[in-house]
## 1
Amino acid sequence: MAELEHPSREDLSIEAVLAALDHPVRLRVVRTLADGSEQTCRQILPDMTKSSASHHWRVLRENGIVAQRREGRNLYLHLRRDDLDSRFPGVLDAVIRR
């Protein structure tokens, strides 16, 4: 399987981050991972079809919001809080608040 690509911290743009977060499912994912946990795709969105969930993971990963790693047949995700807080202080906290 191909290695998952993640943008570097320096390549993150506020426009791309905000656009990626402009969807209720992706906001739910970010809020779920806000506690610093690492979870599998199925743990986060258990009732969503694989193709729909894959679309959301790709958008979040390609825009630098989450990092994914493969372990066996599972993909694990965690929030790139350090990178996002470094580039855009306060944005994640504002998004996570309800």
## 2
Amino acid sequence: MKLRDLPLFVHVAGLLFISTLVTQALSIVLLFYSPPPVSELYAVPDIVASLRAPSTEAAKHRLKVSSNTAPPYEQSEDRRARVIGERIAWALSLPSYAIRVTLGWRPGPPWLSLSIAPKASEPPVSASSRSQRLVDVSDLVVAPFQISVRQPDGTWLTAEPSDDGFLIAWRQNIVKWLVASTVLVIGIGYFFARRLTAPLRSFAEAAERLGRDPRAATLAIEGSAEVGVAAQAFNDMKERLRLYVENRTQMIGAIAHDLYTPLQRLAFRLEAAPSDLRTKASADIAEMEAMLNATMAFVRDATGTERCRLELTSIVESVVDNMAETGANVEMEPSPSILIQADAVAVRNLVSNLVVNAVKYGVSATARVFTENSFAVVEVDDNGPGLPIEELARVFEPFYRVERSRSRETGGVGLGLSIVRSIALAHGGNVDLINLPGGGLRARATLPL
């Protein structure tokens, strides 16, 4: 079994597993191979200078000095903090309990900080003992820290490293790794997603082709197991629809064809009927024959499959010229050359029906051709009274006529617009009627480019 034939569940589970594996692998690489963040070092003499002259020395030594009514954190015991506090107290000629040193300070909740400082109740350490103890420590303080000095008025002067912003060097490296890993995982996910959704796109394209032509090619059965089952079901449905449409269309054509024989016999027998009766019956027979001819034309146009590359504008111009030669008031606006893939006879019938309807019911016709999005558009305007809103959709129904007399002198049999819509839908387009603001009706047919 090929990988693509596995169930869709396996594909999705594999995508999640591989994405998680890649993410964890990149995190391990970041953890073990990225350099640790480099701590900033501050000299104790620089801190002392900044506490003595905050306005001039603090910025020079990258320190921030502020005055507070109380130190930020509670003090706690730590030998290094005690030694640093004693050295600063000695340099400032202050008792050690007036100095509070907090190492490992970070902005945030108190439980995330390590606060270390000498107790205020401890007695001062002698100078000789202080000097003996200071030789055991470095003259440097590692950031972050807070060093506070109590002032005579009871406030605290606090020195701490200045804020260099959120994205300091080591954080920038982490962000770069995260961005790189995210791009890599997105690329892998996109590749898998394309593979998973490709059969769905094929389904959509096959459904669109089926809407245009029931004889369209079958859908290739490939993809996951579930997609293969769905593709087979789709192909079976398409075949059943094709047979259903063809059988119904052939049945209608056969019925229309077989009705010609009894009509001809009826016309022959009417020869012996009285003159007035023969005249009326002959008119009815002629109308029935016209309906049968229209039905047969409808069947032929609905089943036409001879698709080829056509120049649509030339077809419209030919229909307009032929109508103008008969004395009809019809013209065509200048239009660009547009190529489509369609059945030539069917498209010509579509255009002819639109132009004939415009001349018959609207006195004159003006045609134009242009493109809109991915469709070729044929518009035919007339100068007639238009149609009521409720009739704009119903006129496309077979044998429906706005003129109720059913007289062939005032209209056809009601299949012209049905044929137009059938042809447009068979090619993947559509047709609509629009009442123009200044009067008249616009027939608008669309065909895919």
